[in-house]
Design goal:
The protein has 100 residues and is mainly alpha-helical. Helix content is 78%, strand content 0%. The longest helix is centred in the middle third of the chain and has 19 residues. The chain is globular and about 45 Å long. The termini are far apart.
Length: 100
């Protein structure tokens, strides 16, 4: 399925953040991310089935990819550093578990 990389990392990042149950303000930030993505879709001017693409990303991307995407999304949105640190720890854990 064709879609641009910006939308991919934004949606992947959204779903990555959604897995971060240890972050207390997750729901607040997810709402902001949702609005950020909606604004992107509105100005992109592309005629794509964004909901279908988002579902595909949610179901087919690995947790590690989603978390890596979330770091880019957090950087673009100037998100909370606490969340960045938690995500980096989780990615490090995943990488460690993959290598052992």
């Amino acid at each position: 399925m064709k879609y641009d990389d910006n939308f991919k990392y934004m949606v992947g990042g959204y779903f990555g953040i959604k897995t971060m149950d240890e972050y207390q303000s997750k729901l607040y930030f997810l709402k902001e991310a949702e609005e950020y993505i909606k604004r992107y879709v509105e100005v992109s001017g592309q005629d794509l089935d964004y909901k279908k693409i988002a579902k595909e990303i949610e179901n087919n991307e690995s947790l590690k990819e989603k978390l890596q995407d979330s770091l880019m999304l957090l950087n673009d949105m100037k998100g909370p550093i606490e969340l960045v640190i938690l995500i980096k720890r989780k990615i490090k854990e995943i990488k460690y578990n993959e290598s052992h």
